[in-house]
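Practice problem 4.
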């Protein structure tokens, strides 16, 4: 099983979601988790390497690492 990873940054560090692109059930769970974070205003980045990411416009189950950054609030 090839696990792909989604990291959602939060006040506790991050929360992980894992899926296997060959397992439709795990892809559905990851897709729903992705949609939830987008609705919360987070930005998704497909990680190209350890320090660079590309903005994602939609969930892609073949991306091996996704990092969500919460919206920044000024004040």
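Answer key:
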């Amino acid at each position: 099983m090839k696990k792909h990873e989604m990291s959602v940054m939060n006040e506790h560090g991050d929360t992980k979601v894992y899926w296997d692109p060959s397992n439709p059930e795990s892809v559905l769970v990851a897709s729903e988790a992705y949609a939830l974070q987008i609705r919360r205003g987070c930005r998704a980045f497909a990680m190209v390497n350890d320090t660079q990411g590309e903005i994602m416009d939609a969930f892609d189950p073949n991306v091996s690492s996704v990092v969500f950054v919460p919206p920044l609030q000024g004040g």
